[in-house]
Amino acid sequence: MKTQRGQTTPLLRFAQPEDASALAAIYAPYVEKTAVSFEEEAPSAEKFRRRVDSVLGKYPYLVAEAEERPVGYAYAAPFAERAAYDWAAELSVYLAPEWCKSGLGRRLYELLENMLRDMHVQNLYAKVAWPTGGDDEYLTANSADFHAHLGYRLAGEFHACGYKFGRWYGLRCFEKHIGTHASPMPPVELFPRVRVLFGERYGIA
After folding, report:
1. Each residue of 144-176: pLDDT tens digit?
2. Per-residue DSSP letters for 70-134?
3. What order do you get walking across the sheet with 61-66 strand by strand?
């Protein structure tokens, strides 16, 4: 199946340790050439593998694959460490340049949201670097627009909190509620316990 651009429609699947090198390569330009990420040094494949393993211990980590290579990924991470925050998660998504604005980011986020809802997560958050002086060659408002389009609302903003490429950038925090906030709440399911079930439910491996 082809996209409107004539590209092969990517297959969505769970991340594997052997994806680390390819995922690190997708992420590296965001670190080295943009202020989308406030990291200053791109992580090695081994460091990236440890990050993937850490996420998979609790949350889904999704990879989009086209023509037998990863072209994007999305994952959830703890919003904060206190037990009271167990029902909240922070989301991230990164795509290879040729797949930006293709609808792939939405596909990854929507699948991730559905899985997190099934795990009893209630609140989703995203921290988005913000070009306080307007769009420049290192950062635009595209990520903020992406989240707003998917129903995330602006929950707060930090001003001039990140310094990169000799400029100051802000940080906008977006929020989306996907649950009912009942009381009492069932505990959040850990991803390793539901991985097989989710594979069957969503037709991925």
Report:
1. 999 999 999 999 999 999 999 999 999 999 999
2. EEEEEEEEES-SSGGGTTEEEEEEEE-GGGTTTTHHHHHHHHHHHHHHHTT--EEEEEEEE-TT-
3. 11-14, 61-66, 69-78, 88-95, 123-130, 167-177, 153-164
